Structures are given as structure tokens and as C-alpha cells.
Amino acid sequence: LNKFQRYLYKLDQNRRANLRLHYIKLLGDQKENITPLNITKYELWEECKQTCPYTGAHIPLEELFTASVKVVYIHPWQYSLNDSHWNKTLCVQSFSKYISDASPYEYFKNHDPDQWEHVVKRAARLFSNTKIFPSSFRKFKRFVKKHNHRDPQKHQLEDTNILSRYLKNYLSLGIKKVGVGPGHTTRIMIEKWRLDKIFKPEV
Predict the structure, then answer these.
(1) pLDDT tens digits, 105-155
(2) Hey, is 8 helix, strand or coil?
(3) Cα 69 vs. chain centroid, distance in angstroms?
(4) Which of 112, 104, 63 has the alpha carbon at shortest distance from 87?
(5) Distance CA 44, CA 127 (A)
(6) Hey, which of 82, 91, 132, 185 would disulfide with 96, CB 3.0 to 4.6 Å?
(7) Backbone torsions φ then ψ of 51, nearest 5 degrees
(8) d(CA 34, CA 31)
(9) How far apart are CA 12 and CA 18, in angstroms?
């Protein structure tokens, strides 16, 4: 991330932190348990305008904190390894079982292709930018994205920067100044440690 991107990220983190304080107060006023799950549900509920983006069903507040409403990954965890806010939304429980292993596009393409255009239009409305959620359109783009599958293990082995970042973070625990220079450290370490012999050939 460059300096401007880090600045925007910090602004977004501060915005979400202030929102969460607001949600904690609202949950207390409604005598709901103040748990991380309930706070997340409330945030996502406001973001998707109290509507399930998959089915279009309205999600009433009295059902939000029950098992009738699930927090789901837009792109399945096993393919994306993405646990961030940008990869989460709400789904009614009766439909959530169908999308545990598929992105929205994959599910509707294979099971109900005629509905996909309607789903996209609804998602564009639900994830439109607002004053409270100024970056929601970013989630819309993720929701309608057609291809996001990758092999996480293969990705980590081929990313020539990832090992450098991990080593820098670890060494920084005991060393004041640690720098990372350009190079193919990951590939070198894979060869030295013979990781290509340990993992499956296709990785």
C-alpha cells in the first residue's frame, strides 16, 4: 500500500470503530447481547439496507439476532481466505446452505441463471455508497465478481513477497530496524528447504 492508500485505510478503520461504538449503544438499548457476532450483524444489516442480497427478503430487526439470519462469506473461505468485512454479508438461513461453497455468481449461474440479472440490480441498490458506508460499492463489485477461485497454498508459494513480509514482522519483534529488499526470497527458500518436494507437484 502506498501512503495515500494507508491514509484511506486508516480513515475507514476509524469510521468503522466509531460505528461499532454506536452499535454497542443500540444493542444495549434493545437489551441484546453485546457480542462480536451481533455487532457484525447489525453493521452488515445497515449496510445491506435490511435486505438479504441473495433473495431480496426483508430482514426485520426482531429476527436479525436469531438463527434465521446468517453472516456469510461472499466468496467462500476455502478459496479466498478472506475474513474481512468486505467479504461478508447477511443471508436468510433458509438460503445460506446453498451458498457455503459458491460465490453468488457461481450459484445463480449453475442453479438459477434467469435470476442473476435481478440479483445484480438488487446488489447495486443495496451496496450503493452512502454517507455512513461511503465504500459500499467496493462490496458490490466483490458480490458480482465472476471469478475468484485460487489455491491458497499455491498462491503463498508463488508470492515472492509473502515470506519476506512474514520474516520482517517476526524479526521486528527483537530487532529495531528491519528492511526488506527486492529479490526472489520465496523461490530461494522453497529450493533450499525443498518445499517443492513436500507439497503436491501441482502446487
Answers:
(1) 999 999 999 999 999 999 999 999 998 898 899 999 999 998 765 555 555
(2) helix
(3) 18
(4) 104
(5) 10
(6) 91
(7) -135, 140
(8) 9
(9) 10
